[in-house]
Structures are given as structure tokens and as C-alpha cells.
Amino acid sequence: MKKLTNEDLAQVVNLADEMQRKYNEWRKGQCFFNALYELFPDVADEVRGTIVDPFHIDGRIKICTELITESTL
Q1: Alpha carbons 59 and 73: distance in angstroms, whole number
Q2: Which of 4, 8, 17, 55 pairs with 46 at a CA distance of 20 to 30 A?
Q3: What is the DSSP letter of 55?
Q4: How far apart are the first and last CA of the chain?
């Protein structure tokens, strides 16, 4: 799986925040996944339907970001 940089992740979070303001009926996880798909569709496709997919469960955003970002260790 391609890993995102912290800068890439910041772009996803910023776009997700914009989507949440524009589509206030969308959940946070839905906005996060849609932003990820718009910016990095290959990464979104890899998490789609897995136990880290945040689209339906907002609580999965943190574990999803941990999986898709580069480790700083």
C-alpha cells in the first residue's frame, strides 16, 4: 500500500473539513473517506470495505490514518 506523508494527510483532513462544512449531513468518516478518495483514490481503494474503512464508522478515522501514513519511527 502506498503510504501518505504527513503533508498528504493534512490535505485529506483539510478537504474533509471543507466537505463537512459544505455537506453538513455527511458524517466525519464519510467526509474523510470521500476526501481520501478524491485526492488519493488508490489508497482509498485499499481501505474500502476493510476493518479500517471510516466511511460508516467515524471511530475508525484514527486507525485508518495510522495505517495509511508513513511511520515516523
Answers
A1: 24
A2: 17
A3: S
A4: 18
